[in-house]
Design a protein that fits this description.
Blueprint: H1 2-13, E1 35-39, H2 41-45, E2 53-58, E3 72-76, H3 81-91, E4 97-102, H4 111-120, E5 124-129, H5 136-143, E6 149-151, H6 161-174, E7 178-179
Parallel strand pairs: 1-2, 2-3, 4-5, 4-6, 6-7
Length: 180
């Protein structure tokens, strides 16, 4: 997701932007660089030069221990929910019941706004928190016959290779669309 976000940023910026992968190298900032745009926690937490302006992009639900020194702005990768619903309705015009699965406590604040926006758009939205990864199979079985599609937000606790495999197999076996 971060590479896609960076690619979109560079396209919108309109010119080439120096790129550094902190897992491979320490950045050599150009002289006079005043604003640094970072993607991910490692980059946001990096000890950037004193007085730098830092814009840091993070997956929703993830936070760093201390914001960067100086002026800092955090941008979440969670799209606006009206946009998400509009896109889902374009993909699946008959969508009337959507179940959202989440784990990270961060998403609790969105339960009511998700439901309210769904109501505005004629979609019954049910947000269900998985207390643990072990809950996922039973929550999926409960959804059968009660939902037209599943959606998971960019939840770092829920989006794992194992969980994505479970969701994909459940979706295929039951003819239930899964979006993420």
């Amino acid at each position: 997701a971060y590479l896609e976000a960076f690619s979109s940023f560079q396209a919108a910026y309109g010119e080439s932007v120096p790129y550094y992968d902190l897992s491979k190298e320490n950045p050599a900032l150009p002289p006079g660089a005043a604003t640094i745009v970072t993607f991910g926690g490692r980059a946001a937490s990096y000890p950037w030069p004193q007085g730098s302006n830092v814009v840091y992009v993070m997956a929703a639900g993830l936070f760093i221990k201390a914001p960067p020194q100086g002026k800092a702005v955090r941008i979440s990768l969670l799209p606006e929910f009206p946009l998400i619903l509009n896109k889902l309705k374009q993909i699946q015009p008959g969508l009337k019941r959507l179940r959202i699965l989440w784990m990270a406590p961060y998403y609790a604040r969105y339960e009511e706004p998700f439901r309210a926006e769904g109501e505005k758009q004629g979609i019954q939205v049910t947000a269900v928190r998985a207390a643990s990864m072990e809950d996922l199979p039973s929550l999926l079985r409960q959804a059968l016959g009660e939902t037209d599609a599943l959606w998971i937000p960019p939840d770092p606790l829920l989006v794992t290779a194992e969980n994505l495999m479970i969701l994909k197999e459940f979706s295929w076996a039951n003819g239930l669309p899964f979006y993420g």
